[in-house]
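Lab notebook, bench 4. We co-purified these components, and the gel suggests they stay together. Before we commit to crystallization screens, I want a quick structural picture of the whole thing.
Request: model the full complex, all chains together.
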Amino acid sequence: MSLPAAAVPSGAAATAPARGRVLPSAMPYLQALPLWLVMGVFLLIPIATIVMVSFWEDQETGLAPTFILDNYRDVFATQVTFTTYLSTLRYAAIVWVSTLAIGFTVAYVLAFHIRSTLWQMVLFQVCAVPFLTSNVIRMISWIPFLGRNGLLNSTLIGLHITDHPLEFLLFSPFAVVLTFVHLYALFMVVPIFNTMMRIDRSLIEAALDAGARPIEVLRHVIIPLSLPGIAIGTIFVVTLVMGDFVTVQMMSGGQSASVGLLIKNEISLLQYPEAAAHAVILLLTVLMMVWAILRVVDIRKEL
Amino acid sequence: MTIETGVTRRGLLKTAAAVGGAAIGSGAITGFPTIWAQNIKNVTLRQFGTGVSDVNAIAVKCKEDLGFTLNLTALDSDAVTQRAITQPNSYDIADIEYWICKKVFPRSVLQPMDTTKLKYFDKLVPLFITGKLTPESVIAQGTAPHTVGFVEGKESTKFSKTPTEWLTMVPTIYNADTLGIRPDLVGRPITQWKDLADPAFKGKASILNIPSIGIMDAAMVCESLGIIKYADKGNMTKAEIDTTIKTMIDLKKQGQFRAFWKTFDESVNLMVSGEVIIQSMCSPAIAAVRSKGVPCVYQPLKEGYRSWGGGLGLAKHLKGIELEAAYEYINWYMSGWVGAYLNRQGYYSAVLETAKAHMEPYEWAFWMEGKPAEKDIMSPEGKLMEKAGAVRDGGSFYERMGHVACWNAVMDEDKYMIQKWNEFIAA
Amino acid sequence: MEKSGPRHWLLLILFALFVIFLYGPTLTIFILSFQGPDGGLTFPMRGVSIYWFQNLFEPQMVGDFGGSLERSLSLALIAPSLVGVALFGFSLSYDEFSRTIMAAGSDNTLPLEVFAMTTNVTTPVLYALGSMTTLFSFAVVITVTLTVLAMRRKRGAKLAG
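Here is the predicted assembly.
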């Protein structure tokens, strides 16, 4: 980020000597100031509000600004919280593995197996086009495809592969995972593709010249150098899945729980403090996951 | 965009806003007999609601008759509740259901309505005043509209048990929900709520996944199964909630349910696609299924209906000319044109007399008296709904609304209920 | 890296499968957006028509959908040059309905309308919208590619001359 004069108070900028004297040490801070302001107003304050409300008391006439721990106690007192977190984490894990496998392969093909940059660009965009359509539309478009009388089932029956419709295809955990992978695969492809394109091709040549087999090049050169991209993609996918409530609700036919859905149900009955307590815990969980990812991979190399 | 299906309950996305174009075009404003007449034309009223009655046609007609602009936004019932409470300045008129009103009104975002300013107050269906459809009726369980229909005074947010001069909302629309079935696929007569739990329909049943309403459907099923007898289904004890949810979890684990529906169109699509063949539904949703050429029956059941009602409330911030316009609008709303419009969609209007005046006798006989249709029955948009000779499922108005077992409700143990409901979904 | 041999082709086939996976549902909604006027959101098809496309562009629609569409599409036009970055923002902001519902004032925004459509609409007009956006995005991709090609050729010509 480079914000030269704009970020400097006009008085300081007007007089050149003052600038030379005062600013060298303060400059980086001043440059970062707008970012901090934006973050403060749009991120920190809302989160602080959620944390605050999570200690409030819910009353018939509204919220009472008190300091009680009941909301947190309620969260931990029930079995539902654990089942729900387990179910959400399971979705996150399965979707992460699937998108990683798909994303890495697709990025690898794009980066190393497509000859011309032009074709690279075209194929990349072919992958990107569906992502310019609304997520909601892409999500519900699976319903007529997977349904009892849907396209897939009628095709399978038509080909005599099965004689009765496969029910597990829709309104099931399978449908949820499939939709998640469909929605978020690109979030894995893009960062991995990005890091792969930055890998110095001479490193690969050198490895091959030194007698490494392609699989060894992949393992010892490409994968380690793609790690920052993998980490960024992972953060995207995991946070998106952890916070989701629409996909789980729609594709499981309302029969599967997610933390997001739990919070949404509470909000729908105006139980804001409970919802806030859940949100704080979800936030902490996701932050811990991101922290763990950052511990393993130094993504600054990428940035 | 014209309204095609007409029968869709929320299907009227056209409602959402954009009255603009067509409305402005119609400059036919006949001098309205109030001192505000000239200025009132400049007023824009912002109404939001669940889309049941947020119909574009109403806004267009309103512009034509009253001269001012009505801006409509349709949302789902969760979003409606949120907006009513958290953004009280974003609307002028709230079109909400009575169970939502029970949660919203105590938070002082709406102002009570002066009954003396309501021209048709005396003509309201007594269901909304005393809770009884006829003097002999028994008051149904749940959040019956009359229990949250009045407050104690002009500044009060406390519900009054008896009628006062201050209404929380003007009732506009109501109906009775029951099980909808695919007669071609269920293969046997359906007579009771417990049929939803019949193993024969394993993997082909569904219930509503709006917790506060879904629990009522669940209660109807449990009581019908003979598992439990509720003192008040609309206000369960913790033990009653436990039993109800446990029964539902068992059913879910046996694979009874194909999906749970949350919105009007989900219930329609589940039925049309054959994913589900028996589920709780509202009457216009069933009509919507039929309009797609798929057989579907609104099945009256021995135990009675689960009913809901909605009305219009005034935002707290309304005053002066805008408040006058709002009263003007509400009086117009009750004067018959809208009532007839809603009746023709399969809902019921809260002022029957004026609605009747705006309907043809044969229409009234079909929709309200349960008589065979003399002629083809058309939707308000002119689409064929029933052929001549058809009889309305569930019979007459009194047969339907006289057999309400409970109203959609908010319980005292709401917080506990939602926890258990989440448990059910997570099971 | 070797760019021939069985491994190369296997990877290309995997890539093709991914593309099919991406477009499979899009194809479904493309077919369904040609439903007859009485058709619903699911199979079976009830007649074939362009009714829902016409429907989409009728000016009377919710919050002037045509207008909202134009705005969002001009946004899409800028996107290709910034793909990668813009994609995330765009794709995510498109679906901000959950937040929009909570935060929006009294105006209807595009995400809110798409959401309202999914909850309130029993008609394939939604699919027509999905098909249109996909087709439009394709048109943009093709245009950009051709432009880049033309620019290269020009540059090549300059270098030669």
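Residues 125-160 of chain C form the longest helix (36 residues). Worth comparing against the SEC data before the next meeting. Chain C touches chain B through 33 residues (CB under 8 Å).
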